[in-house]
Structure to design on (423 residues):
């Protein structure tokens, strides 16, 4: 599909407008009701990128998947950026008041401890050895007298259990 | 038949086994693009594993690691903080052909945050989005140009009228601006400036702009739109060449 050069920007902008509702729904599903990133912030960033890089977009493609992929990346970037900001810093005007970093850390530590306490001892041990001590599956198997495949199974089940237990407790995102 | 959730977890487990963040995995991204709600489930595991990795929460009750756990915890409490810049922009940037300096040149040394936010909203940054997205032709950036040479806007990107209204938000702008001053004697000079409009950087942004602060059309005998006296001297065009935006919460 080709377009006359003069009509391309207008057509692109019109298509963007048409995609806004679906993109908003996608971001709401992605970020969830307790997300710390405002979906509208992500939406605007995506729209700006879409406008700025309109010339790179193949008009023969569906725009929705292109926008969703961009939104996904923008959201992750914004989330990682917000995670790097120091608590109580002055980087954002009128940012909501935050708990002291120490309090946050304690709350988070206790939450994770609670999650870990609900794992089977073997799963907890293997998680610690793999993710904290940096041991390989082979090293863990040798230390615990288990086949490598068994260690891997315990590890994978432990990770899934963390996700499931966290949901049971109403974990936030 | 493998469910989408199983596909997600298979890819995520592989990533973790290989020491990678699952969110950087293309297969994980593909699944989440189809079922974004699964991100919450993945995040619960990610956050817990990160705490384990940093030693923030061990079965033995070790002391809190202040790095990763705080980083993760901060994500919950950060409130969507933005990386760069602090506050809202003043807006009112110049469109081609206009000679209105940004609000930074109006001599307000220490605007309050609320005042800056009002400027941003009032300036309707997005109502000037078409101007912000104009690209300066190469001729305007090369230095002296022939007097009266038009500044082409062939590269301007038309913005659907409804889009700026739908997206209106205060923001911080970092920008590159090309300021061309046409002198009465027929010569002109172009200055390219990088600047940033935030409530912390207004003074810094103001200096280069003040150097070409004629705001009234040359010879018009009329005061400028921002109240500057009539100017029969140089005429200034300020054109936004490129810009990047970060966002503040409203």
């Amino acid at each position: 599909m080709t377009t006359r050069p003069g009509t391309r920007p207008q057509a692109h902008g019109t298509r963007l407008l048409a995609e806004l509702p679906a993109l908003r729904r996608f971001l709401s599903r992605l970020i969830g009701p307790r997300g710390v990133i405002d979906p509208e912030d992500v939406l605007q960033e995506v729209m700006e990128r879409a406008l700025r890089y309109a010339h790179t977009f193949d008009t023969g493609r569906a725009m929705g998947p292109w926008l969703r992929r961009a939104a996904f990346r923008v959201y992750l970037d914004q989330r990682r950026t917000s995670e790097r900001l120091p608590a109580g810093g002055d980087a954002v005007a009128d940012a909501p008041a935050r708990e002291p970093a120490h309090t946050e850390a304690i709350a988070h530590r206790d939450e994770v401890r609670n999650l870990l306490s609900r794992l089977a001892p073997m799963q907890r041990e293997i998680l610690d050895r793999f993710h904290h001590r940096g041991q390989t599956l082979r090293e863990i198997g040798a230390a615990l007298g288990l086949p490598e495949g068994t260690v891997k199974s315990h590890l994978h089940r432990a990770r899934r259990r963390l996700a499931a237990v966290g949901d049971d407790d109403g974990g936030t995102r | 038949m493998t469910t989408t959730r199983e596909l997600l977890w298979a890819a995520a487990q592989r990533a973790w086994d290989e020491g990678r963040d699952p969110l950087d995995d293309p297969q994980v991204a593909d699944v989440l693009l189809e079922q974004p709600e699964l991100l919450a489930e993945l995040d619960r595991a990610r956050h817990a594993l990160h705490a384990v990795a940093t030693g923030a929460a061990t079965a033995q009750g070790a002391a809190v690691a202040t790095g990763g756990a705080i980083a993760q915890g901060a994500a919950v409490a950060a409130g969507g903080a933005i990386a760069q810049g602090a506050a809202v922009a003043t807006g009112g940037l110049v469109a081609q052909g206009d000679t209105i300096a940004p609000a930074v040149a109006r001599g307000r040394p220490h605007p309050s945050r609320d005042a800056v936010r009002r400027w941003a909203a009032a300036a309707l940054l997005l109502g000037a989005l078409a101007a912000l997205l104009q690209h300066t032709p190469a001729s305007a950036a090369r230095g002296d140009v022939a007097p009266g040479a038009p500044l082409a806007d062939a590269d301007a990107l038309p913005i659907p009228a409804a889009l700026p209204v739908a997206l209106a938000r205060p923001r911080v702008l970092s920008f590159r601006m090309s300021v061309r001053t046409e002198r009465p004697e027929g010569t002109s000079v172009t200055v390219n400036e990088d600047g940033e409009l935030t409530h912390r950087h207004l003074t810094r942004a103001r200096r280069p702009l003040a150097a070409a602060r004629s705001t009234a059309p040359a010879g018009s005998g009329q005061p400028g739109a921002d109240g500057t006296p009539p100017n029969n001297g140089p005429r200034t065009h300020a054109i936004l060449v490129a810009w990047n935006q970060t966002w503040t919460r409203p």
Remarks:
- Chain B has two domains: 4-77, 103-247.
- Confidence is low (pLDDT under 50) at residues 59-159, 164-172, 197-221, 236-250 of chain B.
- The first strand of chain B starts at residue 171 and ends at 182.
